[in-house]
Design goal:
By secondary structure, the protein is α+β, with helices and mostly antiparallel strands. The chain contains five helices and ten strands; from the N terminus they run H-E-E-H-E-E-E-H-E-E-H-E-E-E-H. It has a five-stranded antiparallel beta sheet, with helices on both faces. Strands 7-6-10-9-8 form a five-stranded antiparallel beta sheet. Strand 1 and strand 2 form a beta hairpin. The termini are far apart.
Length: 203
């Protein structure tokens, strides 16, 4: 099972029987199974596969469930791919957006992974504790406004995993500011040429 996980890049591999009992688990530090795992198995029983983002051992994981065939289904294979800071930074490189995964529960919010710096993560935790609206918002960050959008990407019982995308307003407006500066210099240049032309005409 470990070799199979290595081939597909899985960080966690769990083999589940048809009666939903765990046969094999490649994790060595925990044997706690979130309620979402049983929900995923039930969904896979209906559609032969299922996937969701869940909090597993304090980390965000993309869990993918597929049937083990022989040739009829004889069990379920759960492959888990960790969504950690490294993954969030790779998304930042592609989308040019800061990415944060966090879990919201009745007692507050827990940061699971983020592309932000440590200091920025601390500020974000304070915002999350203030119940950041699940919509497009503008939040303050180091004297710079930040465009943010958050949406739910997974669930388990009463706890939900969200992804928060952020981008600096200054970075977003930078191309327009550069265009404005070019237009300003062109206007000043045109004004200067007009003044020079008027000077020679007056002579």
């Amino acid at each position: 099972l470990v070799n199979q996980g290595d081939r597909i890049g899985g960080d966690v591999m769990i083999l589940v029987s048809l009666d939903r009992s765990v046969f094999v688990d490649t994790r060595t530090t925990s044997s706690v199974y979130p309620p979402a795992l049983e929900q995923l198995i039930r969904e896979a029983e209906q559609h032969n596969q299922a996937s969701a983002v869940v909090n597993l051992d304090g980390k965000a994981y993309q869990l993918v469930v597929s049937a083990v065939l022989g040739p009829d289904p004889i069990g379920w294979l759960v492959a888990g791919f960790v969504l950690d800071d490294r993954f969030a930074r790779s998304i930042l490189q592609i989308l040019k957006l800061d990415v944060t995964f966090y879990e919201e529960h009745p007692n507050g919010s827990t940061l699971l992974a983020s592309s932000l710096t440590s200091d920025a993560q601390k500020n974000l935790i304070q915002l999350l504790q203030g119940k950041l609206e699940k919509d497009r918002v503008v939040a303050g960050k180091n004297d710079d406004d930040v465009l943010a959008f958050t949406t739910r990407v997974g669930s388990q019982a009463s706890e939900f995993v969200y992804v928060l995308l952020q981008r600096s307003v200054n970075d977003e407006l930078k191309p327009y500011q550069e265009a404005r500066n070019i237009a300003l210099w062109l206007s000043l240049g045109g004004l200067g040429l007009s003044l020079i032309g008027a000077f020679f005409i007056a002579r």
